[in-house]
Every structure is written in structure tokens, then in C-alpha cells.
Design brief:
single chain; about 190 residues; mainly alpha
């Protein structure tokens, strides 16, 4: 009886070792997959190396799309009109149709529009990279969830197998106890 118990314990140990090896393999695969995803995510640092022109375009676009620009621009226009219409009435640099002002405004618009477009193109690249990184993070989460499902399934299967083995061993022990009891008891005949 002790020999069977020793064999049973050895079988349980071997089963546990197999289960641990399976878990180690799953973790190893997970680590390998994670390193690939992490490597792609770390490539985001390449976006931070901007040229002088790109930095300038971003600053111009940020200023051109701000309330500060609108307020300053409105004040300059108002000052220009007041200066040429009321203060320098007879000696105005740019009298009423404000042709010089129109030329300056056209030049500002002609220069500002392409700079803003450059900044928007850079923002589009940033957004595309951010979306790709979000996709990779979601993919990594999916891989981790799958690995957790595998681990749980493996654990449940092994637990069920162990329970069946324990139940089988208990039945064998019960049969052995019954046979010993029958052989040790006098017959009731």
C-alpha cells in the first residue's frame, strides 16, 4: 500500500512538472511577443526629432490659430484704420481704400496658409503614429488576454485531471479497505 502511495506522489510530481513547463512555455512566448510590440512602441521617439522648419511651422500655426493672434491682428487693423483715416487724415500713408493694408494682409495670408498646412501635415503624421500605437497596445492586450485564457484553461484541465486521479486513488483505497475488512471479519453465515 505504501508503494502505491509513493508511486502516486511521483505521478503527481511529474504532472505538476509538466504543467509548470507548459506555463513556462506560455510565459516565454508572451515575453517574446511583448518585446516585439514594445520595440514598435519605442520607435515613437523618432517623431520627436524635428527640424527647425518643422518647429517654426508648428509655432506659426499655434500662434495663427490663437486668440492672441486674433486680438493683436484686430488691434493692428483698427490702429491702421484710425491712424490713416483720422490722425493722418491729410497726409495718410494708406488712404481710404487701404490698398497697402490689403497688400500686407494678402501677403500674410499667402505665407501663413502653407505654413499652417505644413503643421497640419505633421499633426496628421503624429495622429497616424498615435493610432498605430493604440492598435499595438490593443493587440498586446489581446495577446495577454489569450495567454491568460490559455493559463486558466490549462489550470482547469490539470485540476480536473488531478481531481479524477485523486478520486480514482480514493476508490482504490476504499476497495482495498473493503477487501481487508471482508477478509478480517468472520462470516455472518
Amino acid at each position: 500500500m505504501e508503494d502505491k502511495s509513493l508511486q502516486y506522489i511521483q505521478q503527481l510530481m511529474e504532472t505538476e512538472n509538466r504543467q509548470l513547463n507548459k506555463l513556462h512555455e506560455i510565459v516565454k512566448n508572451s515575453i517574446e511577443e511583448e518585446s516585439l510590440l514594445t520595440q514598435k512602441l519605442s520607435e515613437e521617439d523618432d517623431l520627436k526629432k524635428m527640424t527647425f522648419g518643422e518647429k517654426l511651422a508648428d509655432r506659426v500655426a499655434a500662434f495663427g490659430g490663437s486668440w492672441t493672434f486674433i486680438i493683436v491682428f484686430g488691434m493692428v487693423l483698427t490702429s491702421w484704420i484710425v491712424l490713416n483715416s483720422f490722425i493722418l487724415k491729410n497726409n495718410a500713408v494708406d488712404p481710404f481704400p487701404y490698398i497697402l493694408l490689403n497688400l500686407v494682409l494678402s501677403c500674410i495670408a499667402a505665407l501663413q496658409a502653407p505654413v499652417i498646412m505644413m503643421s497640419q501635415n505633421r499633426q496628421e503624421v503624429k495622429d497616424r503614429k498615435r493610432a498605430e500605437n493604440d492598435y499595438l497596445v490593443n493587440l498586446k492586450a489581446e495577446v495577454e488576454i489569450r495567454n491568460l485564457h490559455r493559463k486558466i484553461d490549462l489550470s482547469i484541465i490539470d485540476q480536473y485531471r488531478h481531481l479524477c486521479e485523486i478520486q480514482q486513488k480514493q476508490l482504490e483505497l476504499l476497495d482495498e479497505i473493503r477487501s481487508q475488512m471482508k477478509s478480517g471479519l468472520p462470516s455472518t453465515d
